[in-house]
Amino acid sequence: MRVEIVVVGKSNYDRHTLVSWVNEIKDVIELECGIEVELNIEDTNDELPKLLINDIVVLEGLPGEEGYLIEVLKNALINLGLCIRGTHP
């Protein structure tokens, strides 16, 4: 299953960092959830970046670390029924 993750926001440090982190953890999410992730970027006027899965905002702003981002993404995918292998702890 292919899942689209979109990072939207103004082209700034926070958006760039969020995109980099998603790229770095993409393999972990794909392996743990049994999905294929397609990452897209959209320019908006929003200062804080937003992370969307299937047009649903699952994160606004930049988390403190990549590990937190993995948990946010994985839990959002589970809640949306898109994480095939994952389960709630």
In brief, what are we looking at here?
The chain is of the alpha+beta class and 89 residues long.
Summarize the helices and strands and which ones pair or pack.
Blueprint: E1 2-9, H1 13-33, E2 36-43, E3 50-53, E4 56-60, H2 66-79
Parallel strand pairs: 1-2
Antiparallel strand pairs: 1-3, 3-4
User: What class do helices, strands and sheet pairing give?
Assistant: alpha+beta
CATH homologous superfamily name? FHIPEP family, domain 1
Q: How many structural domains?
A: 1
Number of strands: 4
The level-1 CATH class: Alpha Beta
Please provide the ordered H/E string of secondary-structure elements: EHEEEH
**Biggest sheet record:** 4 strands, mixed
Going by CATH, the architecture would be 3-Layer(aba) Sandwich
Number of helices, where a helix is a run of at least 4 consecutive DSSP H or I residues? 2
CA-based gyration radius: 12 Å
If you average the pLDDT, what whole number results?
93
The low-confidence parts are none
Oligomeric organization of the protein chains: single chain
Give the overall shape, derived from the CA principal axes.
globular
Q: Helical percent range?
A: 25-40%
Distance between the termini: 23 Å
**Biggest sheet, spatial arrangement of strands:** 2-1-3-4
At CATH level 3, the topology is Glutaredoxin
Name the beta content range: 25-35%
Keywords:
4 strands; alpha+beta; 28% strand; globular; four-stranded mixed beta sheet; 89 residues; single chain; Glutaredoxin
Architecture overview:
With 89 residues, the protein is of the alpha+beta class. Helix content is 39%, strand content 28%. The protein has helices at 13-33, 66-79, and strands at residues 2-9, 36-43, 50-53, 56-60. A four-stranded mixed sheet has the order 2-1-3-4, covered by helices on one side. The mean pLDDT is 93.
